[in-house]
Amino acid sequence: MSDFNGADLIADALAQMDVEHVFAIVSIHNMPILDAINRLGKTKIIDVRHEQAGTHAADGYARASGKLGVMIASTGPGTSNTVTGLYEAQYGSSRVLVITGQAETAFYGKGLAYVHEAENQVPMLASVCRRVESPRAASQLGPALLSVLTDMYTGRGAPGALEIPIDIQYAANSPVAVTLPDNQQFAPAAKGLDQVVDALANASRRILLVGGGAIAAGAQDEVRALAESLQIPVLTTVDGRGVIPEDHPLCIGNYYNSAGMYQAIADADLTLAIGTKFAVGVDGQFAAQTPPGTLVHIDIDGNMVGRTHHAHVGLVADARMALLGINQQLPNLQANDAQFTDKILHAGEGIRGAMRGRLGSDWPQVMDCVREKLPAQSVFVRDQTISAYNWGNQQFPILQPRTSINPTSGAIGPGFPMSVGAAIASGGKGGAKTLVIHGDGGFMFHATELATCAQYQVPLVICVFNDSGYGVLRYLQQSRFGRINETDLGKVAFAQMAQSMGVPGQRVDSVAAFASALDEALAVDGPYLIDVDMEHFAPMEISVMPKKKG
User: Fold this and answer.
1) Do residues 12 and 153 share a domain?
2) C-alpha closest to that of 163 among 85, 59, 73, 32
3) Most buried residue, 180, 204, 396, 503, by most Cβ within 10 Å?
């Protein structure tokens, strides 16, 4: 093993974890790692065009696959570019690892203006990661990596970072055995499980509210079994979509925060919330929206249980193991009050219909066209844009877990690079290409990743809904101030931009043209961009959030 060095240790560890792809931008401070990965030949490197995009791509890869997402960056400016991607990963409880270089140990901390000197890189990364390590000797590299990975895989997912001085990358080392913690430490306590079952037994008008934590735990079968056995209607958060197919008769979907649904569930005597933080929206939206009845809150993160709303019964546990324990008691539990369940399901149908009616004459056809042509296992990604708010996040049916991705933090721009990572993770197997819906303003943040899509023939359909500006903010400005400011961007010819980077595409101005373009996009092997000129489509009624009072 005399030729085995620190960079080889990293490459070998990634291979042990079955990380099939990493995202990277090459630099003098990470060349040994990239060389080691290629020499080993077990992980493919995707050369992105910007570190922020690469970190978002690693995030999309992690969410779509359930595997570790990895971005390899350079020290200093390269690493500072990853921070926004790590911020989103932290918000979304996503396991994204940034590996970066650092000045060699002889110069680290000396203030000698060493190239890319970044002496405060660790605290910078710590502001958006749960664990950051920086070995100071070759012998510390393996333990440092294992420390970060152990943290990332303990309980709720989180990003982590490892900076490696360049001399330690070159220094002789030995492989480490990567063993990740299991979730046995988050098995539900028997007493807590009994309390949950007792609460369920004492209720007859129950609702299920399921978040992304259930998908992270792989608890979709257990959620469905509980819902079907007790005939409980299932509401999800936006990150919990797909935990039960949204064409299932008991699935209402992501409508918990709808005013109409909140009224409909008001007489529920129990809310079983699983793997959700009860996120509070802009202007404090939803903070006062107390879950009806007895709140039973199950989450793997004890800091989340009862944090937003008082939990009458709280259980810190892995969602799947908790549901397995609950489901063992199903023979002792009575089904939901049928009249109550029917009322909630009927209310859901009404809300869906009302929202669809506000989309105008064209956009429901666009949505239906995408769902009809896109395979159920395709990943459907949204950026924060009018089309996402008005139909992508709620109306478009999600049929499988890990096929719905959106920026949890509410940022604009991550959608496209996240879709690149998701598409690479899924590989377009069986013709199931990933599809992303994007606004033109947010798309410009990372439009250069079109070149990455062309280089690797990423199986991705990019739908840019082009209204020549920041449409959501336009709406908010007009409703709050009666005028708009700094939200008009001009109409960009995105199809021509894509073609200039090797991605075929076309602009469409009708539902029929969109349908034809989507057929073409799904037929080609690699990426394809559809520039949707919203000016020529019938307008939809925009309703993003209520007007700010006062």
Assistant:
1) yes
2) 73
3) 503
Among 238, 268, 269, 263, residue whose Cα is nearest residue 253: 238
Q: In terms of Cα–Cα distance, which of 227, 254, 277 is closest to 355?
A: 254
- Structure tokens given for 521: 């996009």
Cβ burial, residue 312 (10 Å; 0-12/13-18/19+): middle
pLDDT digits (tens, 9 = 90+) for 508-540: 999 999 999 999 999 999 999 999 998 899 988
Quick one: 341 and 374 in the same domain?
no
What is the number of domains present in the chain? 3
**Among 290, 305, 307, 339, residue whose Cα is nearest residue 196:** 305
Q: Verify that 89 and 165 share a domain, yes or no.
A: yes
Q: Which tokens go with 469?
A: 């500006």
Query: Alpha helices of 427-500 — where are they, by DSSP H?
Result: 440-443, 450-456, 471-481, 494-500
Residue 399 pairs in a beta bridge with: none
Token pair for 209? 């509210």
Point out the domain boundary residue: 174, 192, 223. Answer: 174
Burial (CB count within 10 angstroms: exposed 0-12, middle 13-18, buried 19+), residue 98: buried
Residue 119, domain CATH: 3.40.50.970
Three-state secondary structure of 269-297: CEEEEECCCCCCCHHHCCCCCCCCCEEEE
Residue 281: pLDDT band with limits 50, 70, 90: low
Asked if the structure places residue 549 within a domain, the reply is no
Residue 548 has pLDDT above 60, yes or no: no
For the stretch 359-381, pLDDT in tens is: 999 999 999 999 999 999 999 99
Q: For the segment 157-216, what is each residue's pLDDT rounded down to a tens digit?
A: 999 999 999 999 999 999 999 999 988 999 999 999 999 999 999 999 999 999 999 999
Q: How far apart are alpha carbons 135 and 138 in whole angstroms?
A: 7
Check pLDDT > 80 for residue 231: yes
Distance separating alpha carbons of residues 39 and 117, to the nearest angstrom: 29
Q: Is 429 exposed, middle or buried (0-12, 13-18, 19+ CB in 10 A)?
A: exposed
Looking at the structure, do residues 312 and 195 belong to the same domain, yes or no? yes
408-455 pLDDT per residue, tens: 998 999 999 999 999 999 998 878 999 999 999 899 999 999 999 999
Q: How far is the C-alpha of 485 from the C-alpha of 467, rounded, in Å?
A: 15
Q: Domain holding 311: CATH number?
A: 3.40.50.1220
Q: What are the CA-CA distances from residue 262 to residues 166, 230, 389 (Å)?
A: 56, 21, 19
Question: Strands (DSSP E) along 335-415, which ranges?
Answer: 380-382, 404-405
E-assigned strand segments in 249-386: 251-253, 270-274, 294-299, 313-316, 380-382
Query: What is the per-residue pLDDT for 491?
Result: 83
